[in-house]
Amino acid sequence: MGMTLRVVEWSTGTVGRHAIEGIDRHPDLELVGVWVSDPEKVGKDAGRLAGLDRDLGILATDDRQALLDLKPDAIVHTAMTDDRIFEAIGDLTEFVRAGINVVSSGPVLLQYPFGVVPESVTDPIIEAAKAGGASLHVNGIDPGFANDVLPLAMTSLSRRIDEVRCAEIADYSTYYQPVVMSQIFGFGQPVDATPPLLTPGVLSMAWGSVVRQIAAGLGITLDEPLIERTEVVAADRDYDTVSVAIPTGTMAALHFEVVGQVDGVDRVVLEHYTRTHPEQCPQWPTPTNGDGCYRIDITGDPVLNVEFGHHGENGDHNVSGMVVTAMRLVNAVPAVVAAEPGLVTALDLPLVTGRGLVAGAAAPAAD
């Protein structure tokens, strides 16, 4: 690779702390700044905030302008966006207008927004990026790699494609997000209630970008609107999860599909099988190993199947989920910096690899 790219990490939370370590390990990247929202973290060394046992010599700040004034080549943006989507879009727009390339974990609707949100949302970002000569790439883990790059790469092995199906199969009993689990998904609520997630149109907004990006990659035009199918399963006994208690008879498991059809035939399907205890719904698919996986099934000629799981060195898939989210962003920085200015989707990126990361085989990054 050429010269080292100067990078600012934006946030040091569940994903950001792993991104800091990833940037430090990457031979082509240099950490030059870290932004934090928590006043308690200001002035602390990035290495300590990342949970490393050493200082990196970069102190965290909440001074936005000071970081933009560094004129870094890229910002790795991993701040929480779910509860402040439009403020986050404002931040990303400001960064690219300032000529700084961005890779971000959210808002996920920008992963592939075309046909998902109106152009009034995306046009200002694209205009700012082109004005600044910078690129923005948004890619979480779901949606993101497991639901776009992986299935599309698999379709390169096909002679005929009848249907592409991307599934998340997961046990959420250890997933600690009480508001998400109880109020948004509706676990522990009456089965005839309609939680926000199951309000018509919401699933297509949240995961429609997956379906539409795969369709774009396959060169097909989908029927409008996308189709949503849901199956709610009541608890056969009392369950207790780390986030919410689920009494007998209330909602305990959920299967949903967001479907892209062509002439009334299912062609691209995004689905989730979400349990709150591993013994629930034995008729549903289960991960081959562990508590959760992504599974790609392509029917046609030939029939193709891949199951993608991840585990941290300590075996915890909740931690490794944060690591893979962070590292896909960090490892994509050189490609996004090299990309044409604008909004860059997975369809625009070359093959992103773990170049320079083989243990003991690469020259260490310059101090």
UniProtKB/TrEMBL annotation:
SUPFAM superfamilies xref list: NAD(P)-binding Rossmann-fold domains
Gene3D superfamilies: NAD(P)-binding Rossmann-like Domain
Chain ranges of the 2,4-diaminopentanoate dehydrogenase C-terminal domain: 147-353
Domain of life: Bacteria
Pfam families named among the record's database cross-references: DAP_DH_C
Protein name: 2,4-diaminopentanoate dehydrogenase C-terminal domain-containing protein
Species name: Gordonia crocea
